[in-house]
Each structure stands twice: as structure tokens, then as C-alpha cells.
């Protein structure tokens, strides 16, 4: 069986390729370029990543193909990313990138090269039962990436392998070190390449116009001006730059709400009740196996790395209503709510409103 591994130039995909070779598969690799920016400030490391990927491929003795999906990424991921921010929402481009680029454009391209399946360095597992494919959490709970993979369908799962799903990050580093991979001590990438270590608000302002408005507290008292609601997210603390002289305590300030009609950013101090909501409505639900029967008791995450929270799901007017057993902090419209039955990822939806 021929497997083409998405080799990113990081340690995870390097070890994924190694494991597949050890398991006896015919392995080739593919490096994807997804962003076309001429980056003079070192924020996007594509050139270095390609160099590292080539060195790993040479070490393993496998072919490395390269492909440019920048146009696909712009059309299928980044355009949506900008549109959502214009609406004052906070999208998750990594979820869409997996659905549209890594497990569609990459999958199609790999199959055209003669692959039977693709593989990536994601920390997740796939289990087949009677022809039905389940997406399960990775055994390393601290690295589990099923949240970002919840939009995958049966066909995509049937054509994919996650060699790291059964091991933890420490083991991955050890394997890379023992095999002399240049990526063994390479820092994990954070966020999306085209943003990198940049200031997020400054990056967005190169694509979206500033729309100055007021930052006010929960009582409507003016604090300062903001540059545009698109540049802030619910629960945000960093970047507000609200100094002393406001509020009654020294606690930090957080974004609690965005009022699109008045272009106001609502901020609160400390662990304020306005940051918490017990239910949400969500649209465009995607179920990995079959649509469940409602009401459904399960657990859910409203952000990556959050511990799963017990909830009940009901269907209502084409959307789903999710009620948590306990109030949740900083439920954010535009983000994904992802559902679980113990270690099985059931699917997810896009958060529209919190209640």
C-alpha cells in the first residue's frame, strides 16, 4: 500500500513518515505551500520548513513532492476568515484548512500520484467498525487534535492515517532524536503560518479597514477608543491596553461582548459573570457518522485544549441548541463547538449565539 505523508518540516510529520516505513508501507512525502506572501520579517517559515522537510525525506530515503495550494487556501479558507472577521466574529481557519486543503486538495493530489491513502502528523485516531469510520481522540490528551478534524467525512477518514494517534509527544521527540532528524528539537508551530508570531490585530489591519468605536464597561462608561470590532475576540485580555484609573480593582480587563449595531466593545474586570453563558445556538452541524437522535446527552468543547464539558443537544429550526451542565466562559460566535461521546468525536457546528 502506497502512503503519501504530508511532510511539513516539523517533528510530528517527520516521525509519522518514519513510523509508516517501519510498518512496511511504501511511503512518499508531499510538502504543501499554502501561503504566497513574500515575508521579509520571518513570520512565515515556509522556505525553512521545505528545507527541513527535504532533509528528513533524504534521511528516510523517500521522495518528496511539492505542491502550491496558495490559490485554494485563499479561496476556500482565507476569504472566509476575512468575511467572518468583518462581521465581528472569530473564525477558526485551521478547521476549514483541514476540511478543504489537507483532506481534500492534498488528498486529491496524492491520489493522482498513485497513493492509496494519505497520512499526517495529527494526534488523533481513526477506527473502522463494519465499514463505518470513527474519529477518536489521540491518546496524548495534551496534544489531541480531534477538535480541528471534526469536519472530516467518511470518505476522507477512509483515505487517511494518523500514525501518532497512539503515542505521546515525548515519544515522538525521542524517536526523532534517535533517528537523527533535523526536526527533533524544532519548536512546535503555533497558530497559522501567515500570521506566525505577528501581532494578530496588526496583521488583520493590513486586510480590513479600521472602524473606530468606543470601549465601554458593563455600565456603559467610556474607557477608550478601539480600532474596530473585527480586531478583538470574546474573552481577550492581551492587547486591550486599559491602564489604571478605570474600575474599582486591579484585576485585568477582558472582552465580554461586541455590540455591532453601536460599534461598542464591552469589557469587564476579573472573572465577571458577563463572561459566562450556559447555552448556545450553532449552525451547519456536521456529524461524522450519522445524524444523532435528539435530545442528545454528550460532552462538548468550545475551544481547542478545553476539557470536554457535559451538555445536552437539541435540534431547533435547522440549528442546534447546546445547553451545558455548567456555565461556560467566553463562548465565541464564529468558533466551533465540537461534540464527543467519551473518546469518540461525533462532529461539530459553528457557534452563532450564546444565551
From TrEMBL:
UniProt EC number: 2.8.1.13
Protein name as annotated: tRNA-specific 2-thiouridylase MnmA
Catalytic activity: S-sulfanyl-L-cysteinyl-[protein] + uridine(34) in tRNA + AH2 + ATP = 2-thiouridine(34) in tRNA + L-cysteinyl-[protein] + A + AMP + diphosphate + H(+)
Classification via InterPro entries: MnmA-like (IPR004506), MnmA-like_C (IPR046885), MnmA-like_central (IPR046884), MnmA-like_central_sf (IPR023382), Rossmann-like_a/b/a_fold (IPR014729)
Originating species: Bathymodiolus thermophilus thioautotrophic gill symbiont
Site feature (Interaction with tRNA) residues: 122, 335
Gene giving rise to this polypeptide: mnmA
Family according to the record: Belongs to the MnmA/TRMU family.
HAMAP family linked: tRNA_thiouridyl_MnmA
Domain tRNA-specific 2-thiouridylase MnmA-like C-terminal residue range list: 278-351
Active site annotation, chain numbering: 97 (nucleophile), 193 (cysteine persulfide intermediate)
Chain positions covered by the region annotation Interaction with tRNA: 143-145, 303-304
Keywords from the named record: ATP-binding, Cytoplasm, Disulfide bond, Nucleotide-binding, RNA-binding, Transferase, tRNA processing, tRNA-binding
